[in-house]
Amino acid sequence: MKTYILGIASGILLLPACRTQSGGVPEVTPAMAARTDVSEVRLQNGRDLYMSNCNRCHERVLPGTEDPEFWREVVPHMAKNARLDPSQESDVLVYLMAAHLVARNVKVPD
Ligand code: HEC
Questions:
Q1: Half-sphere exposure of 46 (CA within 13 A, CB side)
Q2: Who lines ligand 1 at CB under 6 A?
Q3: What is the distance in A from the centroid of ligand 1 to the CA of 82?
């Protein structure tokens, strides 16, 4: 009985985490946009570019696994690999930095 109740409790606790991270690539939300002061449109464009380009040559490297500074170094190099233009490159970079905050569960305002 005790185990049963604990099982339910941890299920409830895990649920919000699953929803915001969706497989380790956080969805763009109003909270993410507010936290980073970047528009949702731009973040969504960055996420779309990341989803369609950044697993063509290797497994997708997830936002939360790397520091923002790492992304700042790697993205310009990878944007050339993916043949992104400078504005697309910058959208991918801001998305990855914003997603890092969400993936690491840094508190974002509602
Ligand atoms: C045309 C192929 C290609 C595409 C497209 C590509 N990559 Fe890469 N990526 C590579 C290769 C090759 C390496 C390993 C050698 C290197 O670092 O250049 C690599 C390495 C990496 C690394 C590890 C670098 C390190 O120093 O550990 C990361 C992170 C990465 N890619 C992210 C991305 C992201 C983000 C995108 C999308 C913008 C992307 N890649 C698109 C070919 C690609």
A1: 27
A2: 53-54, 56-58, 61, 74-75, 78-79, 81-82, 92
A3: 9
* CB distance 30 to 40 below 8 Å: yes
Q: How many H helices and E strands in the chain?
A: 5, 0
Task: Report domain extents, the chain.
Answer: 2-103
Ligand 1 atom closest to residue 84's alpha carbon, by position in its atom list: 38
Closest residue (by CA) to atom 24 of ligand 1? 74
Q: pTM value?
A: 0.81
Tens of pLDDT, residue by residue over 12-63, are 444 444 444 456 899 999 999 998 899 999 999 999 999 999 999 999 999 9
Residue scoring higher pLDDT (90 or 22): 90
